[in-house]
Amino acid sequence: MEAPLMHWIRAAVPYLAAGAIGVVAGRLTATPAIRRLHAQVDTLTHRVLRDPLSGLLNRSGLQDAYTRAAGEPRQVILVDLNAFKLANDQHGHPVGDHILSALGRRLATLASQHGGWAGRLGGDEFTVILPTATSATAEAVATAATAAITITDLPTGPLTVSGSAGLASVPAGYPWDSALTNADIALYHGNHAGKPVVFAAGMTYPRPETDRRRARDTTEQ
After folding, report:
1. 207: three-class secondary structure by DSSP
2. Does 106 score more than 80 pLDDT?
3. Which pick of 64, 127, 129, 154 has the fewest CB atoms within 10 Å?
4. Are 2 and 67 in contact (CB under 8 A)?
5. CATH class of 59-217
6. Residues with Cβ < 8 Å from 43, sequence gap 6 or more?
7. How many CB atoms lie within 10 A of CB 124?
8. What pLDDT score does 3 carry?
């Protein structure tokens, strides 16, 4: 199913265009008016589907991208930063934002190299979606995504933050929520293994539920 916000935007475009045409019917300014309307819709779409800090897709944008590739198998990679909250608390939000932006740029490059999409779910949790990629490719992308990020221009000295990753291979038509859950389960195990982990049948979250982080439940920022 198409992401609700994207569905609303696409559904609204014909009505907005019809209204613009009605207003300018018979006038030579009709074409410029329609162009302006489309530009406004493009701007709105970008704002609705993009994370303002990283510039990547947000949760709705990721779901839309995933849905558009529904007819083919996909690799879903979930990435988070280790001890990010501690670094954010000790060095301040500007440094935290700098780290998130650096990770966002890295993921955008990796996704682009493999014809996929990168996005931020919220907080320090990011997702890469790779259509038709092999498991080996996804693992290589996950390894590159979690490499250490070092900030050197701090009064207290260099700060290095690494990441963890969970991967899920999903067939065509597989639900978005289920794909994200599988990758999130693998991410939990990746946090403890110190390397990217691939979801396998039968893999579960730990118990009790309060002992784990679930990326799909993170409040988007």
Report:
1. coil
2. yes
3. 154
4. yes
5. alpha beta
6. none
7. 24
8. 55
Phi, psi at residue 149, to the nearest 5°?
Answer: -110, 125
Cis peptide bond prior to 208, omega within 30° of 0: yes
Any idea where the domains of the chain sit in the sequence?
4-49, 59-217
Whole-structure pTM value:
0.75
Q: From CA 84, how far away is CA 218, in angstroms rounded?
A: 15
**Alpha carbon distance 137, 133 (integer Å):** 6
Confidence of residue 36 (pLDDT cuts 50, 70, 90): low
The residue ranking higher by pLDDT, 211 or 103, is 103
C-alpha–C-alpha distance, residues 111 and 163, integer Å: 17
* Among 67, 66, 68, 48, residue whose Cα is nearest residue 58: 48
Q: Pick the more confident residue, 27 or 218.
A: 27
Q: Contact 175/38 with Cβ under 8 angstroms?
A: no
Amino acid at 104: G
